[in-house]
Design a protein that fits this description.
- By secondary structure, the chain is mainly α.
- Helix 1 packs across helix 2 and helix 7 packs across helix 8.
- The longest helix is centred in the first third of the chain and has 25 residues.
- The two termini are 37 Å apart.
Length: 213
């Protein structure tokens, strides 16, 4: 991050970024430079997700992330509460956006099936002991049934895509033309219905034990 000795104060950042003329232009350039350093660092940290990407492509992704992060920071200036330094607060926008850009690029040519059924029994670890295998298979069947009977078709597709297929939520939101918040709400409702269904058939304790182990 930037040199703290030479960094503008939080008040100066806000004043300059909301000013017209040379001061505002200079502050905007400083902000973009800060966010470009942050996004470049994050893109290169995540470059393992893009094994075939060359330096030029990674640089372009970092620049896209910095551009988007700059817009996001400017839109949210009035939400800055001073709980951390302004530069630290702004830096996080670039780190987040860089992750979004890298994940989108990594999934660019991957098909998202949006299936509304899943074979959890086939995912059971068959190297377990006979008793553990029987217990895991029974639980998998119960979860499969709950997914099939307790969720709406839309909830099934979203839950399977996000939880089973591990599609990044920003990628799924982009493909479906919706928002992350809408998908979070769908997933939240789906999990609530699944918990109720599994509680009804006596499997909730087993699920809870495994999730907190």
């Amino acid at each position: 991050m930037e040199n703290s000795d030479a960094a503008p104060s939080d008040e100066k950042w806000i004043a300059d970024l909301t000013a017209d003329g040379p001061d505002g232009d200079a502050a905007l350039r400083r902000l973009h430079e800060l966010l470009l350093r942050a996004s470049r660092h994050q893109v290169y940290r995540l470059r393992g997700m893009l094994p075939h990407a060359g330096p030029e492509e990674l640089t372009d992704l970092a620049m896209q992330a910095a551009d988007e992060a700059t817009v996001s920071v400017l839109r949210r200036l009035d939400t800055f509460e001073g709980r951390s330094r302004f530069s630290t607060w702004a830096y996080k926008f670039a780190v987040y956006q860089a992750g979004v850009e890298v994940r989108k690029q990594a999934w660019r040519h991957k098909e998202i099936s949006l299936s509304d059924s899943v074979d959890l029994v086939g995912m059971v670890d068959h190297s377990a002991s006979p008793s553990e295998l029987a217990e895991a298979t029974e639980l998998a069947r119960a979860v499969e049934k709950a997914i099939r009977t307790a969720l709406t078709p839309h909830q099934r597709r979203i839950a399977i895509a996000l939880v089973i297929d591990e599609v990044p939520i920003d990628v799924l939101a982009d493909r479906l033309g919706t928002t992350r918040n809408a998908l979070y709400k769908t997933l939240h409702d789906a999990r609530r219905r699944l918990r109720a269904a599994l509680a009804d058939c006596g499997h909730l304790d087993a699920i809870t034990d495994r999730s907190t182990a």
